[in-house]
Amino acid sequence: MEVNNRLWVKRLSLSQQLIVLIVCFVSFFAVFFFIFVNSNVNNYTEEQMFTQLSETQDNLSYIYHSVDVDTTQLAQNDNRMIDSYFFKRDNEGIYHVEYHADGLKDDKKIYADVYNNLLVQDAIQKGPLGVFYEDESIARVYPGNKYTYYSIRMLEDDVVLVSLLNNAYINEFKSTFVENVIDITVFVVGLFFVIMMLWVGNIIRPLHIIKNYIDRIRVGKEATMKINRKDEIGEVAEALVTMQEELNKQEKTKEEMIHNISHDLKTPIATIKSYGESIKDGIYPYDTLEKSVDVIIDNANRLEKKVRSLLFMNRVEYILSQDSDEIVTDMRDVVDTVVLNTKVIRPEIEIEKNTMSSLFRGNEEAWRVCVENLLENALRYAKTQIVITLDEEQLCIYNDGEQIPEEILPTLFKPYEKGRDGQFGLGLSIVSKVVHSANYKVVAENVETGGVIFKIRLNSTDAHLT
């Protein structure tokens, strides 16, 4: 079920995912509002109402103590939503309402509740542990029809101020508060939605450009792409453009290489064919039968080498994909074997070996082909000498031939690249594949005193094999 849900989400576009996100956000906020906010609005309203009562009584108390004013006029100047009453106690201890008596007595229940509280507070005040002191308030909640909250404050020993808050004001305050919260919520959600839509649009637009660019490349059409962004999308777009340029370059180089390989294969085949036909007719194209056969053998060897390189290039991925993590090869044995087999190519070149037993991780056949390609490359360009050095850390093959142009060095190990003599080859690309598959690295460097050296060594993060 969880997998199906994930697949369902993945089928949605970014815009649809955004809409789902907004709906979930609004639903969650609605539940939160009605459960949490609605449950707290009464508490907030009650707090605000008692604050209003307290401020009203503070003002009336201040005026009462500082100005000689009639209590009737004082009460009439009060807040229209708060009804204030002055209760005065006579000599017999009975409280009388000096103002608004008829209006208060209309609500007999609250009048009785207020009056009973006056008597209770009066009894406490007269007792030995009186707590109702002058100018202190007692706030009460009364579930009446017209009034809900009221507050009692003693102004003098025989004068008490009672303020009652009208239900109409309470309901109006609560309604206004809830409406404001809803308005703010709608505004925030709307603003959030607009910002998210702009943000998603800013993402979708370059993605569509990238998709169109890839579609045109896929069908072989010319395509250009310019996305002026510095974020991850811009990096992807730049990488795609760079990749396309590299692929175009490799495709062009591959076509040229295929043409050259075809020519390289055609030449020895034509030579072998023509020499064979001539010998069959009793004609020796190269003076004698033995020399003519030597030409055929030499061209056959050239042809075999070309075919073997092409076949191994196709097989190298399979060979390197085999599990060889626990296989190690003694590179001294590999070097000795390769030198013995290849030194006959140019016997006049001195091959000096400074080798010791050293274990390299990887398949022996792959390492043999790797060293063979490096040594044949060295024999091709060496003038008089090749030096092979092998220790526990690296394998180095030096030749005293001409140095490699600096502009060629960065692409020397890429497939289908031209060499320094302008010809194509797969040898060094095979070397690179073998070396990197075993987690080694290979570099070519020009030597200051002359010549070129190829080095194969462990990556710095790998431990040495013992």
UniProtKB/TrEMBL annotation:
Matching entries from CDD domains are given as: HAMP (cd06225), HisKA (cd00082)
Q: Name one GO molecular function term.
A: ATP binding
Q: What coarse category fits the chief subcellular location reported for this protein?
A: membrane
Q: Where are the transmembrane segments?
A: 18-37, 184-204
Is the keyword Transcription assigned to this protein?
no
Q: Which residues form the HAMP domain?
A: 201-252
Q: Name one GO cellular component term.
A: plasma membrane
**Domain Histidine kinase, residue spans:** 260-462
Which residues are in coiled coils?
233-260
Q: How does it sit in the membrane?
A: Multi-pass membrane protein
Q: Per its UniProt record, what SMART domains does this chain match?
A: HAMP, HATPase_c, HisKA
- EC numbers on record: 2.7.13.3
Q: Where in the cell is it found?
A: Cell membrane
Pfam families given in the database record: HAMP (PF00672), HATPase_c (PF02518), HisKA (PF00512)
Keyword annotations of the record: ATP-binding, Cell membrane, Coiled coil, Kinase, Membrane, Nucleotide-binding, Phosphoprotein, Transferase, Transmembrane, Transmembrane helix, Two-component regulatory system
Q: Reaction(s) catalyzed by this protein?
A: ATP + protein L-histidine = ADP + protein N-phospho-L-histidine
The record ties this protein, via InterPro entries, to: HAMP_dom (IPR003660), HATPase_C_sf (IPR036890), HATPase_dom (IPR003594), His_kinase_dom (IPR005467), HisK_dim/P_dom (IPR003661), HisK_dim/P_sf (IPR036097), HssS/ArlS-like (IPR050398)
Identify this protein by name: histidine kinase
